[in-house]
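Q: Got a minute? One more chain.
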Amino acid sequence: MVLKMTSNGKDLYPILREKFKDPAVYSARDAHWAGPDVVRAEIFKAFGYFVTESSRHMSEYVPYFRKRPELIGKYKLENVGRFDRRTEK
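A: Always. Here it is, folded:
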């Protein structure tokens, strides 16, 4: 988790909180190089800190997000299995 995030002495957390109110910011296909970043946004909203792990990686640590097929759809993790197999080669 990133406990402090600043730029030129300015706290960036208020900006992140405002931006993450809009699901379009993190649920779009191009939100992150790996696709939608819904899990990371949900962790941020729940705990108030930005995690450095992508949604795919974070969902490995917090398996709640992968518990049932409908959750995989809700958090836009449909391609996780395909991604994992691709990187094993």
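A: The two ends are 30 Å apart (CA to CA).
Q: Perfect, thanks.
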